[in-house]
């Protein structure tokens, strides 16, 4: 690892198209039932509320995944190729990946999020603690397409890591926000990204597992109402972007598990009949009518291993917790 990288490097690929964003929102509000994409949950306040959710007693995924890494980290380090490029999807605070620096000893760290502004403070702080580790903040919407842009590949070459193995790291069970066909598309892109590097690359991914409703539903509808606030805050975000006049007080949070589809669904449900207006448009909602805001698919280990195989990965290994609530998979690219 080079000792000549005192500052992280930043590349912004994704550019917001406000006209396209507005069109997406209007299209979703016109559907029956109405829909708003889950990415609109994560404005500045929404991101802080989600951080609070991860501290709740009911919300098991974050602490369970952390415990799996703590218990099985050495085994994971033996599976992952040494001196690989660690590519962290949805990096945010970068805290989860930072815990892997010591056991994995990566050749370079690439933190991917939709905006480098989300990453800048975290990477600047992290770089001071790991002066010898080259760091790149990549602003990219990987949910649309996951690939390293040419500028990122050139940066890897300057760090002597162009031919290093690539380890794609996707923790937190965020893969559950994608439908199975969408998840397959993303995993195929992850496989191509890993295979483009040196031998030994692969995917390290956190996956939430199917479990009883009594465990799942409180994790998405907590007693303190933090998840409800998180969900209703989406309406304020839509108001700012679209000029709507949603009143969050008119909407209840609903979190339920659909066993047939093996997914948690989050909705906002109108408390009474009313109209929501915006420039040049409006929609009337009946009492009890819902807006679908998020899915979180839950997987059995066998089903997710089969999905990884269909995406092109070699047979996977996974580690779990004593209650078998969550799994971390290592899937070699070859």
Average pLDDT score: 95
What Rg, in angstroms, do the CA atoms define? 20 Å
The beta-strand count equals: 14
How many distinct helices?
11
CATH architecture of the largest domain: 3-Layer(aba) Sandwich
Helix/strand-derived class?
alpha/beta
Q: Biggest sheet, open or closed, and with what strands and sense?
A: 8 strands, mixed
Q: Strand fraction band?
A: 25-35%
CATH topology of the largest domain: Rossmann fold
* Separation of the first and last Cα atoms: 25 Å
* Unreliable runs: none
Helix fraction, binned, reads 25-40%
Secondary structure blueprint with pairings:
Elements: E1 9-12, H1 18-30, E2 34-35, H2 44-53, H3 61-79, E3 85-89, H4 95-98, H5 101-104, E4 108-113, H6 116-129, E5 135-139, H7 150-158, E6 165-170, H8 180-195, E7 198-208, H9 213-219, H10 226-242, E8 251-258, E9 263-270, E10 274-278, E11 281-285, E12 290-297, H11 301-310, E13 317-320, E14 326-332
Parallel strand pairs: 1-5, 2-12, 3-4, 3-6, 4-5, 6-7
Antiparallel strand pairs: 7-14, 8-9, 9-12, 10-11, 13-14
Can you give keywords for this protein?
334 residues, alpha/beta, single chain, Rossmann fold, 2 domains
Quick structural overview:
The protein is 37% helix and 25% strand. The protein contains 11 helices and 14 strands. The protein is globular, with a radius of gyration of 20 Å.
Summarize the structure in words.
The chain is built from 11 helices and 14 strands. It has 334 residues and is of the alpha/beta class. The strands form 3 sheets. Strands 1-5-4-3-6-7-14-13 form an 8-stranded mixed β-sheet, with helices on both faces. A 4-stranded mixed β-sheet has the order 2-12-9-8. A two-stranded antiparallel ribbon has the order 10-11.
């Amino acid at each position: 690892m080079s000792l000549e990288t005192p500052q992280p490097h930043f590349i912004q690929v994704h550019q917001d198209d406000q006209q396209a964003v507005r069109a997406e929102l209007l299209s979703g509000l016109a559907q029956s039932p109405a829909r708003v994409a889950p990415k609109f949950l994560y404005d500045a306040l929404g991101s802080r509320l989600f951080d609070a959710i991860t501290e709740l007693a009911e919300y098991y995924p974050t602490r369970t995944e952390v415990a799996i890494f703590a218990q099985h980290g050495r085994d994971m380090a033996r599976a992952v190729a040494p001196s690989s490029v660690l590519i962290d999807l949805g990096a945010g605070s970068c805290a989860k990946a930072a815990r892997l620096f010591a056991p994995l000893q990566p050749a370079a760290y690439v933190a991917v999020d939709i905006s480098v502004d989300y990453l800048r403070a975290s990477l600047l702080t992290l770089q001071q603690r790991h002066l010898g580790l080259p760091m790149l903040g990549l602003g990219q919407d990987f949910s649309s397409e996951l690939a390293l842009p040419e500028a990122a590949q050139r940066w890897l070459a300057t760090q002597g890591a162009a031919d290093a193995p690539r380890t794609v790291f996707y923790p937190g069970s965020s893969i559950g926000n994608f439908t199975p066909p969408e998840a397959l598309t993303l995993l195929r892109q992850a496989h191509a990204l890993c295979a483009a590097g040196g031998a030994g690359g692969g995917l390290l991914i956190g996956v939430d597992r199917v479990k009883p409703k009594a465990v799942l539903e409180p994790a998405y509808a907590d007693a303190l109402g933090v998840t409800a606030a998180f969900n209703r805050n989406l309406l304020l975000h839509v108001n700012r972007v679209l000029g709507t006049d949603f009143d969050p007080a008119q909407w209840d949070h609903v979190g339920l598990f659909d066993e047939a589809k093996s997914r948690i669904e989050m909705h906002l449900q109108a408390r009474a009949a009313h109209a929501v207006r915006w420039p040049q448009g409006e929609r009337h909602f009946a009492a009890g009518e819902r807006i679908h805001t998020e899915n979180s698919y839950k997987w059995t280990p066998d089903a997710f291993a089969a999905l990884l195989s269909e995406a092109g990965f070699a047979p996977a290994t996974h580690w779990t917790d004593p209650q078998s609530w969550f799994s971390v998979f290592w899937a070699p690219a070859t």
